[in-house]
Design goal:
With 413 residues, the chain is of the alpha+beta class. Helix content is 18%, strand content 28%. Bound molecules: ligand LQZAQKY5 and molybdate ion.
Length: 413
């Protein structure tokens, strides 16, 4: 299999991996569906098709009177139209009779429009005297109402399989009477590597060592996105320990994330391990981004596996998660736009030195005036705590000045 030997541009790398792994992949259903209130963040297992129209009946958007709009033609405060008040539409049920010519029925917000009515005259535009309504406004058909099926019709596709759900979608399931959501069964193992990396409970941390940050970041990252994740611990920088730990993860998980041990030091054995997995195997051994260059991408078709080797530096690891892993997960699920960062043009609020020849991502805090770049180095662990996203400087871009328009990628919630 041809491996990208040199660091390659991010877009090129993504295209290659998506093509070689044949994304999107079929989504195995989760055994137990998701409770509706827990579904936010998870991928949807099956396309959601509307089982009924919405609204299910034509309804009023205002308190007032259900009318035939044509009967208000020409009405104004000076020349009102007079219509007979024939009764009231009850809330939670249909009108007892259709709207007859020359008449109106009193109706409340959310009330069911009686047959014959095609608009609602607001209370503010009417005066009631002795069983007559004086309409001071001419209405257009549809004014102050939503018609049955206006938003969507029975049979319409509302959400596609693989799209990442959030709280905006929960109400749609509720409207269709669904208290549970079909989910996707996805498993992942996260492995940290490095002799200097110690478990988080280590206290005090021996000199020269650091607590495992990436393992927890990646575990949380995937859990919030619907994966059953196991943090498989910290593997020693030794070929045998790495191979054994990796083998187990490969056998049991759809997605395997490794952190550390990817750059050029003699102890960096990950590449060796990744070159042994079945075809297409190791596809990428470096992405032309900063931070995050020593990123490895591998995968197999039988069994279906995606493997990502992250750089050990925590900010580099997180940057790769948002800019490389998310697009791959989106392609895997067949719904890239619901998984990836939203992009926007923003004003840069400080001068920033960027290097030509590499695509750079700098954490940034959004303000109404523009985006402030935050201090960052790839080894920082807290650089994203106030970040709303990343300023992106494409390969050809050098130093940018305060006031210039630049691209900003929002971190998905
Ligand atoms: N001579 C060169 N050295 C380095 C290069 C290079 O091209 N030539 N690339 C640099 C870049 S860029 C990065 S990023 C790092 C990535 O290195 P590795 O992926 O091999 O990671 P490690 O060497 O294992 O660790 C780097 C750094 O991160 C700390 N680390 C590792 N794992 C964790 C973890 N789970 N939680 C917190 N911190 C972690 C580790 O202690 C190191 O300080 O390589 C550069 N070097
Ligand atoms: O990818 Mo590395 O992040 O620049 O230190």
């Amino acid at each position: 299999m041809n491996v990208l030997r040199e660091v390659a541009p991010r877009e090129e790398v993504l295209t290659k991996v998506i093509r070689e792994l044949g994304f999107p992949w079929e989504l195995p259903p989760r055994e137990t569906p998701l409770a509706l209130e827990d579904a936010a963040g998870f991928p949807l297992g099956e396309t959601l098709v509307a089982s009924q129209d919405h609204p299910p009946f034509s309804r009023s958007l205002r308190d007032g009177f259900a009318v035939r709009c044509e009967e208000t033609a020409g009405a104004s405060p000076g020349t009102p139209a007079f219509l007979r008040l024939a009764g009231e539409v009850p809330m939670g049920g249909p009108a007892s009779e259709p709207l007859r010519r020359g008449e109106v029925l009193s109706i409340h917000t959310g009330g069911m429009l009686p047959p014959g009515a095609d608009g609602v005259l607001m209370l503010e535009d009417a005066t009631v005297t002795a069983g007559w309504v004086e309409a001071r406004k001419a209405l257009q058909r549809g004014e102050n109402v939503v018609f049955q099926g206006e938003e969507y019709r029975r049979g319409d596709s509302l959400l596609t399989a693989g799209s990442r759900l959030d709280e905006r979608h929960v109400g749609i399931f509720a409207a269709l009477g669904k208290g549970v959501v079909p989910g996707v069964d996805l498993s992942a193992t996260v492995l940290s590597t490095g002799d200097e990396v110690v478990p988080l409970e280590t206290d005090p941390v021996p000199q020269g060592c650091v607590r495992d940050v990436n393992g927890w970041f990646l575990t949380g990252f995937l859990r919030r996105r619907g994966f059953r994740v196991r943090h498989g611990g910290i593997l020693r920088d030794d070929p045998e320990a790495l191979a054994t730990g990796f083998q187990r993860a490969f056998e049991e998980s759809d997605l395997i994330l490794l952190s550390g041990g990817s750059s050029v030091s003699v102890r960096d054995h990950c590449e060796e391990i990744l070159s042994q997995i079945p075809a297409p195997g190791l596809m990428v051994r470096g992405v032309n981004i900063q931070p995050g260059k020593p990123t490895h991408l591998a995968g197999s078709l039988v069994p279906r596996r995606l493997v990502v080797g992250f750089p050990g530096h925590p900010l580099a690891c997180a940057t790769v998660a948002y800019t490389v892993l998310l697009p791959l997960l989106g392609a895997w699920m067949g719904s890239p736009e619901t998984w990836t960062c939203r992009k926007e043009r923003v004003t840069l609020l400080r001068d920033l030195v960027a290097r030509a020849g590499v695509e750079e991502f700098v954490p940034g805090r959004w303000t109404p005036q523009g985006v402030v770049p935050l201090p960052s180095a790839s080894g920082y662990v807290a650089a994203l705590r106030e970040a709303d996203g990343f300023l992106r400087f494409p390969q050809e871009r050098e130093t940018a000045r305060s006031g210039e328009e630049v691209e900003f990628w929002w971190i998905p919630r």
